């Protein structure tokens, strides 16, 4: 009887032990995820626009997911905890929480932070476009000032035109070399400059240095205003703005501000046999150049023939009027090549040399006169 009782107690104890062991093993099985069972976990989707933030999903003591997703964001070297809103149903998209910067209580470095989120570098905006715009502005500033062409309307005066374009009357006069500003014709074209200066037309063989010397304006200033890259390659008939100039001074202009210029061509090439000045007890009003008979005699400048024929001691004489009370004389010729009233150009043949009139041998007697008075030709021959 006792043996049966002992055996019954032992069976009960063994039964409780087995039941207890199953309970313990169940907890261990659950914690160690033994048995291959699946967890019911809510799936959270995070909408990321530019950067991906790292997140951790915490668990409770029993291996179940917590009710919130906690994200640690590294701001200014300090790790801060930000709570994200949980989703009610699986598959619901959770919006990215707004991050607000708060001062950290403990100044912890990135090395001490339990979680560091790499902050992507933000590059500075490129400056290429700004540089291009600056270059364009510089080019605009260096660009050649425009020259406007204005057609005179009926009843329009030079003052009206100057006022309309915002320039001075003198600027228009100098840019167009107007002899009489009060005489304008309807339909007449006037060059209007946007800067104070004159418009110069480059002559054949004229250099920028020569133009600079004539107007007393630096070469650098002329090239800058006209946007010239190579000063040695200016072309004939090119129009240049001469900044600051008040009067046109074209090549070979004979008179500037009432003063004769060194702008006359030699009528012939030869030896000077007699100079200007007193000779044999009287005044010699010209320059004698010894040449063979029949040598071509050429005009020293543009002008109009006012005399062509015999004239006493001069023999066969040609007189050319160059305007502004300037004239030249060619004497002792053998024959003529022009007639009175004819327009001639610089270098044109007007006669052929000889020894007519009061002459001791074949030569050309050349004179320059201003306001009727003879001057020394050697001072004005180029």
Descriptive report:
The structure is a single chain. A hairpin with a 2-residue loop joins β17 (316-323) and β18. The protein has three domains: 43-118, no CATH class; 153-251, Roll (Membrane-bound Lytic Murein Transglycosylase D, Chain A); 271-379, Glucose Permease (Domain IIA), CATH 2.70.70.10. It is α+β, with helices and mostly antiparallel strands. The protein contains six helices and 22 strands. Residues 28-45, 50-59, 66-115 and 135-142 have low confidence and may be disordered. The strands form seven sheets. Strands 11, 14, 15, 16, 17, 18, 19, 20, 21 and 22 form a ten-stranded antiparallel beta sheet that branches. Strands 1-4 form a two-stranded parallel ribbon. The chain has a two-stranded antiparallel sheet with strand order 2-3. It has helices at 2-31, 128-142, 158-165, 169-176, 208-215, 219-225, and strands spanning 45-46, 69-75, 78-84, 93-94, 147-151, 189-193, 197-201, 239-243, 255-256, 259-260, 271-274, 277-279, 282-284, 287-290, 296-298, 303-310, 316-323, 326-336, 343-344, 349-353, 363-370, 373-375. It is rod-shaped, with a radius of gyration of 53 Å.
């Amino acid at each position: 009887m006792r043996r049966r009782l002992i055996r019954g107690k032992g069976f009960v104890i063994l039964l409780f032990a087995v039941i207890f062991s199953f309970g313990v093993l169940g907890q261990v099985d659950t914690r160690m995820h033994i048995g291959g069972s699946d967890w019911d976990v809510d799936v959270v989707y995070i909408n990321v626009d530019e950067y991906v933030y790292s997140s951790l999903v915490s668990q409770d003591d029993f291996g179940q997911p917590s009710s919130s997703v906690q994200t640690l964001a590294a701001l200014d070297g300090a790790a801060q905890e930000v709570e994200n809103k949980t989703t009610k149903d699986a598959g619901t998209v959770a919006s990215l929480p707004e991050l607000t910067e708060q001062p950290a209580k403990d100044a912890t470095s990135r090395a001490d932070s339990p979680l560091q989120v790499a902050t992507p570098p933000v590059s500075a905006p490129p400056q290429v476009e700004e540089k291009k715009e600056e270059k364009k502005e510089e080019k605009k500033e260096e660009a050649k000032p425009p020259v406007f062409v204005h057609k005179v309307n009926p009843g329009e005066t030079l003052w009206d035109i100057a006022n309309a374009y915002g320039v001075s009357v003198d600027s228009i006069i100098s840019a167009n070399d107007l002899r009489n500003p009060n005489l304008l014709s309807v339909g007449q074209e006037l060059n209007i400059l946007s800067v104070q200066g004159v418009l110069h037309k480059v002559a054949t063989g004229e250099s920028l240095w020569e133009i600079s010397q004539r107007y007393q304006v630096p070469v650098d200033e002329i090239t800058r205003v006209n946007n010239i890259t190579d000063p040695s390659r200016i072309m004939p008939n090119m129009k240049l703005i001469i900044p600051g100039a008040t009067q046109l001074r074209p090549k070979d202009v004979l008179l500037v501000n009432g003063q004769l210029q060194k702008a006359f061509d030699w009528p012939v090439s030869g030896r000077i046999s007699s100079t200007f000045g007193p000779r044999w007890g009287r005044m010699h009003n010209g320059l004698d150049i010894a040449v063979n008979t029949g040598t071509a005699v050429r005009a020293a400048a543009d002008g109009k023939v006012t005399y062509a024929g015999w004239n006493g001691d001069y023999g066969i004489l040609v007189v050319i009027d160059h305007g502004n009370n300037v004239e030249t004389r060619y004497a002792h010729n053998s024959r003529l090549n022009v007639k009175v009233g004819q327009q001639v150009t610089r270098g044109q043949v007007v006669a052929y040399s000889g020894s007519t009139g009061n002459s001791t041998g074949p030569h050309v007697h050349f004179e320059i006169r201003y306001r009727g008075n003879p001057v020394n030709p050697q001072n004005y021959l180029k």
